[in-house]
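Hi all, a correction to my earlier message: I attached the wrong file for ABC transporter TMD0 domain-containing protein. Here's the right sequence:
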Amino acid sequence: MDEFCGETFWNSSLSWNTTEPDFTECFQKTVLVWIPCVFLWIFTPFEIYHMVENKNRNIPWNYLNISKLAVTLILTSLTCIDALALKKIVAQKLVYNVEISTPIIKIATLILASALVAFNRKHGVRTSGVQFIYWLLQALCGIPEFRSEIANDHYNTSYLAFYPLVLVMLLLNCFVDKPAEYSRCPNLNHPCPEEGAGFLSRMLFQWFDVMAIKGFRRSLKTEDLWSLRHGDFANEVYTKFDTYWQKSVTKSSV
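and the right structure:
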């Protein structure tokens, strides 16, 4: 890895045995960049499966999904600018593999993230856990490099613009998109708020706060209860159950 970066990959004196710990530049450009990228590429098939199985289609363009797409494209452009600037440097000095591979990985991953935003809108996916975690990892893994750039006398202007935009994307992914224009699910008089809750709201069980507060203030009544989620309807559950039941019956009869 030292030859890949042209410098030390890990330095205990810099990262551990010091009053001002920091990671080496090699560690920042490899591990901290690759972790979010690898995560997104690994979990993209699950995201695609979720899109295909989703019963909603065509979320209208709105400020949220347009902002997500625009910011992601800006991040891609900033990374491309860095890559083009590197092309000029190659002719002047020795450039190590990490300087070439890391921008390529980042550009490919950001293009994938842009595509997921567009296809999620088309397939009616209002919130994405995969994308939220990806941007969360980007934000966490980017802290050391952003700190290093701030502490450095020679600022990397592009990254000083890149990292705040990553935080913007993380914030945007905390919100849920508008309902889809077309849905194969029946309309309900009292739908469960979990259906329209964002990923973060589901993880924190925040969508249930309204019911909890109402139950704290007074006794709950039947009309206070929400309808079942579409995925919990008998016709939905039975179809899946019957599929596995028939397989089990077939195996037992052999």
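Sorry for the mix-up. The mean pLDDT is 85.
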